[in-house]
Design goal:
344 residues, alpha+beta, 40% helix, binds phenylalanine
Length: 344
């Protein structure tokens, strides 16, 4: 039996020696050391031996089993390490390689300028009108008629206004002032609203003009509103946007829907008032149109001008952005050139 044990041991040891992977080792263990393995078969015969032989053969069998277990375990550890290394090698990441460039989106300068203007005016008590009161596709009724703009006014000319084929009298709005009418038709005073949005004019495109641009309209209607309120609000607004050290001036002007009307200038931010190319040598830049809402307009929407009065104003967002960021060509806003856009 001793010879039998030693024979099996040398066969098993040789098998272990030849094993190539963890799987081989598992098979060897099953073949020799499992309950149905070859050693167990021999151990079954132990009961036929004398006590003395039982002890000797038994301990020899135990010793051999232990030796096999140990070398199986050693080989197993070795294979395991090798396989792990191979796997790590295969899945190796070069963390020094540059990562994929994921460009970060930015807010368009016209959007951020609009947001800034809107939030200043909100802080002065104005709220933004609902979009239903500010449609881009508009009727002549809102864009012209109710704003006291007569049928033969040159602004209606096909050269300025985009007419549509949708229906007679349907235009792409040429100004945000139509929002004034929508709001006053839907709301009783006091009214204190602003309305930002896109407007369209049939212009020849150049560095100063595009055939669409953006305006922000303002309207304040209540009892006892005076031109002093208009000046106070607009001066404060300009002071916050351009800085408190920048002087403003109000020039008398004309708009069909305001009386009296004014244009508001701010001291040229390029030359500080000395006169340069940007301000055409005048030292001033026009930034706003404004005026007291014409009594005719109030009557048209059913507001009694003997009881209520108010002012309106309108400004170009592109102009505000161009002045703040010293941009000299309006077309840059609309070209989608990332080299331009990523500067903001
Ligand atoms: N709608 C005028 C324009 O487009 C601006 C304006 C608005 C003037 C409100 C007075 C009052 O030029």
């Amino acid at each position: 039996m001793k010879a039998q044990l030693e024979n099996i041991y040398s066969l098993a040891a040789a098998d272990i020696e030849k094993a190539n992977c963890i799987n081989d080792l598992d098979e060897i263990r099953a073949k020799y050391l499992s309950r149905k393995g070859e050693f167990n078969e021999i151990k079954k015969n132990l009961k036929n031996l004398s006590d003395e032989d039982k002890r000797i053969i038994g301990s020899l069998a135990n010793e051999i089993t232990k030796k096999l277990e140990t070398s199986l375990q050693e080989k197993h550890d070795k294979f395991y390490k090798e396989e792990l290394n191979q796997k790590l090698q295969k899945e190796r990441l070069d963390i020094t390689l540059p990562g994929k460039y994921i460009p970060r989106g930015k807010v368009h300068p016209l959007t951020s300028t609009t947001n800034e203007i809107v939030s200043i005016l909100q802080s002065l008590g104005f709220s933004v009108v609902e979009s239903k009161d500010s449609p881009e596709v508009e009727t002549e009724y809102f864009n012209f008629d109710m704003l006291n703009i007569p049928q033969d006014h040159p602004a209606r000319d096909v050269q300025d206004t985009f007419f549509t084929t949708v229906a007679k009298n349907v235009v792409l709005r040429s100004q945000t002032s139509g929002a004034q009418i929508h709001v006053m038709e839907n709301q009783k005073p006091p009214i204190r609203v602003i309305s930002p949005g896109r407007v369209y004019r049939n212009e020849n495109i150049n560095a100063r003009k595009n055939n669409f641009f953006h305006q922000i309209e303002g309207l304040y209607i209540d009892k006892n509103i005076t031109f002093g309120d208009l000046k106070g609000v607009l001066n404060e607004f300009i002071r916050i946007y351009f800085g408190s050290s920048r002087p403003t001036r109000f020039r008398s002007s004309f708009f069909p829907f305001t009386e009296p009307s004014a244009e508001v200038d701010v001291q040229c931010i390029m030359c500080g008032g000395k006169g340069c190319k940007t301000c055409s040598g005048t030292g001033w830049l026009e930034v706003l149109g404004a005026g007291m809402v014409d009594p005719n307009v109030l009557r048209g929407v059913g507001i009694d001008p003997e009881i209520y009065s108010g002012f309106a104003f309108g400004m170009g967002v592109e102009r505000f952005a161009m002045l703040k960021y010293a941009i000299d060509d309006i077309r840059l806003f609309f070209n989608d050139d990332v080299r331009f856009l990523k500067q903001f």
